[in-house]
Write a structure and sequence with these properties.
Layout (H helix, E strand, L loop, with lengths): L11 H8 L4 H6 L6 H7 L7 E3 L10 H9 L7 H12 L5 E3 L8 H10 L5 E4 L10 H5 L7 E4 L6 H11 L5 E3 L3 E2 L1 H10 L5 E3 L4 E2 L1 H10 L5 E3 L10 H6 L5 E3 L18 H4 L3
Parallel strand pairs: 1-2, 2-3, 3-4, 4-5, 5-7, 6-8, 7-9, 9-10
Helix pairs in contact: 1-3, 5-6, 8-9, 9-10
Length: 274
């Protein structure tokens, strides 16, 4: 054992192969400080192709933020600065980018990612201020290789986003968002994204007529997830029309909210109730 190979002597490509499977926290606060060879391997762009910022807490008082400032001798820490560091290390090769859900991301961060991640395939966008949502279509349209888009809520510019995807993202096949899904939203999906294969609208207000319009208009759907929605029940007609979809999940969806209000009109107010 004393004559065995040491970890730091492992081939560079082997180290990179291992490190690319690690999360961002380990790549910044763990392996770089083991030895010089591990540090050099951790900087390889392959290790930074998938950036999942949702795994971390970017609050100023979080353990991660404090550890990062202490490890790198910083007096200030921000998500924007950390994101730029990670994207720079990717050398433009990021294929999956997941913004944090609750804190830190801004329109400027999305603009930076749109410019510096040209081959992005999977994007999970942050919730922006209402006045910033109008910029999302232009930014999304830059990702020519985009395949999947996830949004924490339905932006006011969704119709324009769908149009830009249709014009620029030829490999697009998956969408996830929630909100009040109205007639104009369904038209945007069926007109601009008719070949979509995966669609998740869970926790939305979704009327039966709009659900059926999606089922009828998106003939290539393979997976439709509408769990915990308000506005429809999976009755015999719904199940029959959706029978051609390989996976149709509708657990917890109901026609009305618990206090007994029943309607066929989508109303954003009731989305916040569930």
């Amino acid at each position: 054992m004393a004559e065995g190979r040491r970890w730091e002597a492992m081939e560079f490509d082997c180290l990179v192969n291992i490190f690319q499977r690690l999360g961002i926290e380990e790549l910044t606060l763990g392996v770089p400080f083991v030895c010089k060879s591990w540090y050099r391997a951790s900087l390889d762009p392959i290790c930074w192709k998938v950036l999942n910022f949702q795994e971390l807490d970017f609050m100023p008082w979080s353990n991660f933020s404090k550890r990062f400032m202490r490890q790198y001798s910083l007096h200030h820490f921000s998500f924007s600065g950390f994101m730029k560091l990670a994207i720079n290390r990717s050398h433009g090769d990021v294929v999956e980018l997941r913004f944090p859900l609750l804190f830190g991301a801004s329109l400027k961060d999305l603009v930076h990612a749109s410019d510096r991640c040209p081959i992005l395939k999977i994007a999970v966008l942050p919730k922006l201020m209402l006045e910033d949502e109008e910029h999302i279509p232009e930014l999304v349209g830059k990702w020519k290789d985009l395949e999947q888009l996830e949004m924490e809520s339905k932006p006011s510019s969704f119709s324009e986003i769908a149009t830009q995807i249709s014009l620029n993202c030829q490999s697009f096949n998956g969408l996830r968002m929630f909100g009040s899904i109205k007639k104009e939203d369904v038209l945007a999906i069926t007109k601009s994204l008719p070949k979509i294969k995966y669609l998740c609208l869970s926790r939305s207000y979704l009327c039966k007529k709009e659900l059926l319009a999606i089922v009828d208009g998106c003939k290539e759907l393979e997976k439709l997830i509408v769990n915990d929605c308000v506005g429809f029940e999976a009755d015999e007609e719904v199940l029959k029309r959706a029978s051609t979809i390989t996976t149709f999940e509708h657990n917890g969806s109901k026609l009305y909210v618990d206090f007994g209000y029943d309607t066929d009109d989508c109303d954003l107010h009731y989305v916040h109730v569930i």
